[in-house]
Amino acid sequence: MSRTPQKELVTGAVWHPPGAEIPDVEEKLYALSNQCTDCNICEVACSLVHSPDGMVNPLLARLKVDHSPQVGRKAVHPFGFAADICHHCGNPPPCAEVCPTDAFYYDPKTNVAVIAQDKCIQCMECVPGCPFDVIFVAPDGELLKCDLCGGEPACVDACATRPEMNNAGKQYVRAPVLFHTDTAGYRAVLQDKPERKDEVGMMQAMLEAGTVSSAA
Amino acid sequence: MESRLLRVNLTTGDCKVETVPHAMFERWIGGSGINNWIMWEHFLTHDVNCDPRGPDNIFVFGVGPLAATGSGSGIKGRITFKSPCYGIFGDSAAGGKFPYMVRFAGFDYIAITGRAPKPVYLHLCDGDVEIRDASHLWGKNSAEAHNTLVQELGDFPSLAHTLTIGQAGENQVGIASVVSDASRIHARGGGGCVLGSKNLKAIAVQGSGGVRVHNPRGLLNWSKDFRQKIDQNEAIYGFKRRGTLGAVEMYQHIGSHFWRNNQGNMFRGDEVRSDNWVKKFHKYSEVCSADCYIACDGRYKLDGTESEKAKKYVGESFRRPEYLTTASAAGALDLRDWAEVAHWGKVTNDYGIDNQDLSTSISFIMELEQHGLLSARQKAELFDRDNQSLEWGCMEDVEELMKDMVFQRNRFGEFFHNGPYYGALRYSEFRGENFMKYATYGKGGASFTEEMRPFPTWMNNMAVASRGADHLKGIGLIEKFQRRDLSMKYFGRLEAADLSTPVLKGACTAVVENQVALLNSYGVCLFHWMLDPGGYTPEDYYGRAFAEVTGIDRTPEELMRDGERICNLEKAFNSRLGLRREHDTICERWMFEPCPEGMYPGKVAADMFETVLDEYYEWRGWDQRSGLQTEARLKSLGMDDVAEVLAADGALVRA
Fold it and tell me: How far is CA B534 from CA B199, B483, B484, B515, in A?
């Protein structure tokens, strides 16, 4: 069986010939649906960061909290929604493979595949081409794909679940929870049940922080 | 900064869109400030003494400029109307995704007047408005109506988000509430009754538009700073897990609950006494409103193993009960099982009724029974059935009485549908005997399930809040948490944090009311501010975000004056309705009965009440004898037009 020849992708201005070594994406994001609270702040922050004129609109975001996810493809929150974000698949990514105009190129800074809007003809081949349904179409037809914000993803910063409390031995450990950057950490947290976490009460925390007088 | 106001006249079916100009934001900030002004203007051309259930009343929905911009401080939509249950100013806030989607649908403010000839719902989609038939929704509870609408409207251009009313609103029960997205309640004041009287079952929105921010880079920087500050705050971690439920433990500690109609102030029952609801019931964290860095809400789903009573409610899933749900169930009604408390939260939400007013009305009747003041015949008169038991902590009795109220089945429902104060008055009249000392209320209206007597600022809040007894208008954090740093910051003295003296307590209410008015006008949640009231100050810290979003750059002093202006407009509305100093009062139980237990036994509100009230009027610059606003103060706030209207109504003191 003959393999379909791989599409050629560009890293910045440099063409990679078929079969050549293309560096992996150094940092990947995994969205944890079981920790997601459906606050939509990642969508809002994403659209604000990518908006040239200060327009906030979740439909312009490059990730989505999906309320009618296709069960089976992804981990779904028990209350029926799934946080979707680009998985930055190995090279070449399926979205780029189906592109008829080679509009995808590798951002030299982050090594992720992004769309060159001037080359894109908005044929939307990449939308079903993506196995995770994470290429979105803006109301004006523009194709939206995660570009990791040039290395500092706004969604990770903004996530409401980001510093979930884990106070074993009263040490507050703050780790980004919803958006994990490594596979092992992602799996560990995915299996973690929220109710298993030990905790202190609000009163105790406030007493310790000195925001409430103990005489109160 | 500009936004759009949708005016709907349901009688004629006219819908028109107006621009809310930049000048409006400069004067009224947004959110509740602009809502208040829209209502004020409406009642300049309509009779202010109209029947709140009539077509002349106005229902305003509004959402402030900071909402849905990625500021991370939560979103609160606000409804404003003339309250049908208390007959005074009424407003109420709730989260959910509805206010978020309203902005994306192209409207920030919706003003509804008139009365539709048959049940209708309003559909807003990307700038278009349609009044649609709602006969298939009528009779459904708030959650069913929401689910039907969401299924019907599909997910293009976005999922639908709704405001709905339950059966209580349809039957025009005075204390009916409006439910946002089937789980967040605009409970206070009877907004559901206003919508019910207008035959408006629901408002559904879908949108794919956007919201423009004046300076996106500045807002992102502010938001980053806010997030880092929140992460460094230790109190946030308890709050994320428990939300306001954490207050159960704290209030048990200081004796600040409302047990059995405030005959006590601590919970009984081992289960509800602590906030271990979280350990047993909490399944998943949930966000209350979109765009929030805290996400303090949670969701439960009962499988019957949690407790003995949970077996009755297997499969039930709803939001975590928050503090006042717990206070009304475990406190006022003495339900001692968390499953029942959670269930109480769900059914009041589904029927669309305020659980504060409902629980205090029921506990009033239960206390009469406890003192042997109800004979079998008198109970039969009240409930139209024999052998109605009225036992503290009995969920079956509570549910029966709730249905009496929602479906207006008997005299109990009829008497108490405007809350415990008017209920107690009517029942006293009916029996020819004075039972007012068993009723708990403030400012002639609502009641509130928290202990007031040892806390001078809180009792002052109950007496002066513009929408009737209420803690959210001027929440007394400085005093209850004994925050000396805040006392020093705002007054340069320590007394405001000292519970034993009335000094500076009225001042506290006045200052905090201004701050809360600002937050409500920004359209954000109060809890971010409450976690660190000295750090995230509405006039300074939030003021910067307000400047980034709207381009209106104000100093903290100017913003405090803006807050004061908003409070004064609410007061002016009440003054037009004839409210004077004698209406700024609280019930006999809080006033004269000594506090029975807790950390401050023996305290009565009457010790400090008048002194604190005088001080409040002094800080507000209002007349102490009549309680009315003065011309000089209103003019100094740039409210000459309001002063003229008040003078024409004889509700202004020309000092």
Answer: 45, 9, 11, 12
Give dist(CA B553, CA B546) in Å, integer.
Answer: 8
Q: Which amino acid would we find at residue A111?
A: N
Fold of B456-648: 1.10.599
Cβ–Cβ contact B68 with A under 8 A:
yes
Asked, as a colleague might, if the bond just before B157 is cis with ω within 30 of 0, I would say yes
- CB < 8 Å from B in window 37-66 of A: 37-41, 44-45, 47-49, 51, 53-60
The first and second tokens of residue B568, run together, are 């004064």
In this structure, is residue A21 part of a structural domain?
Answer: yes
A50 falls within a domain: yes
Phi first, then psi, for residue B377 (nearest 5°) are: -65, -40
A15 touching B (Cβ < 8 Å):
no
pLDDT reading at A164 higher than 50: no
Q: ipTM, 2 decimals?
A: 0.84
pTM of the model: 0.90
Which tens digits make up the pLDDT trace of B165-214? Answer: 999 999 999 999 999 999 899 999 999 999 999 999 999 999 988 899 99
Q: Which residues of A touch B292 (CB under 8 A)?
A: 39, 41, 160
Could you tell me how far CA A160 lies from the centroid of its own chain? Answer: 14
- Flag the least confident range among A72-86, A183-197, B63-77, B593-607: A183-197
Average pLDDT score, chain B: 92
Read off the pLDDT of residues B238-272 as tens digits, 9 standing for 90 and up: 777 778 888 888 888 888 899 999 999 999 887 77
Residue A165 to residue B294, Cβ atoms within 8 A = no
Q: How many domains does chain A have?
A: 1
DSSP-derived secondary structure for A58-84: GGG-SSEEESS--BTTB---TTS-EEE
List the single residue in A34, A38, A205 with the smallest CB-CB distance to B238: A205
User: What CATH number corresponds to the domain at position A28?
Assistant: 3.30.70.20
pLDDT at A198 over 50: no
Residue whose pair of structure tokens reads 């806390």 in the numeric block:
B455
Domain coverage including residue A76 = 1-163+174-198
Tell me the pairing of strands B120-125 and B200-206: parallel
